[in-house]
Amino acid sequence: MPRRSHSLSPEQYAALCHSTVVRVRDLQELGLHRSTIAHRCRPGGPWRSLLPGVVLLNNGAPTRDDRRSAGLLHCGPGAVITGLDALQLHGMQRVPAPSGPVHVLVPSDRRRTGHGVVLVERTERLPTPEIGRWPLASLPRAVLDFARRCRDRDQVRSGLAEVVQRHRYIPAALAEELATGSSRGSALPREVLTEVGDGIRSVAEAKARERLLASNLPRPLWNPTLRDAATNRFIAVPDGWFDEVGLAWEMDSHEWHLDPEDHARTLKRRVAMTAEGIIVVPHTPGRIMNDWPAVFDELWRSIEQAARRPRPAVIAIPASPSI
């Protein structure tokens, strides 16, 4: 950059640097002395130091985008955002909003350390960033980088299930990405991917699956596609399906699913199943967790009732291949 007068306004510096988050070296090339930059970044000064060598050209609280930009400038060319920030920028909605350090991947031979704003991870598997405003790791890499560091099983469930439920990647692709990466922190995402491979697509279903596995009730299919056996006409996709007796088990709460209109779709598919002679048993996630003895009894009696009538002429196609 050509050297310029240090009397420029912050807006002019931002325009020349194309951002309000800039490197100290770029400000020096514009004519500012390092001591002047340091003085402006003093406590109570007009600017703020975000990372060594990276400055915010105002003294307000840095936004998440400011932190992302600072992390990328600090880490250098080729750095890639992963984890929660990448998931948010990919449009995922059922993972926590990023609030801690920005997780950034750098080449294994690059010496960088985080300073509160950024979590720097050196890797020999540096992903090629997807095209866009931000250099992002692919969705499988981002969600598994998050899952490896998360200790909250339900948050890991939500993240992995959302990626699959939005039809972005099949469970096997996520399992392959998990196996290819570091084994550190892989136990929990591996367990959750087993659930997802069984067809689980929500936290509520995962909790219901846990209850069933500890009981003597039959094992249902999760989220299979039901079709008319004679015409192959699509009927519905129930949450749980006891195939031997033709009974659907529904998690009766839109809060545990991903789309805002899911509750309305739930009601529509129940009508479609009932019209085919399918017995539909709805339970809320709260009852499944807090009143399981009663839910167990209701399910058991419903299965017995379903077994006493002719099974509906439907076929069930599993949600996805096993992992």
Q: What does this 3D model show about the protein?
A:
The radius of gyration is 26 Å and the shape is elongated. It contains 13 helices and 13 strands. The chain starts with 9 loop residues before the first helix and ends in a 6-residue tail after the last strand. It has a four-stranded mixed beta sheet with strand order 7-10-11-12, with helices on both faces. A three-stranded antiparallel beta sheet has the order 1-3-2. Strands 4-5-6 form a three-stranded mixed beta sheet. The mean pLDDT is 89. α7 (153-165) packs across α9 (187-197) and α8 (171-180) runs antiparallel to α9. The protein folds into three domains: 10-61, no CATH class; 66-197, no CATH class; 203-317, Endonuclease, Chain A. By secondary structure, the chain is of the alpha+beta class.
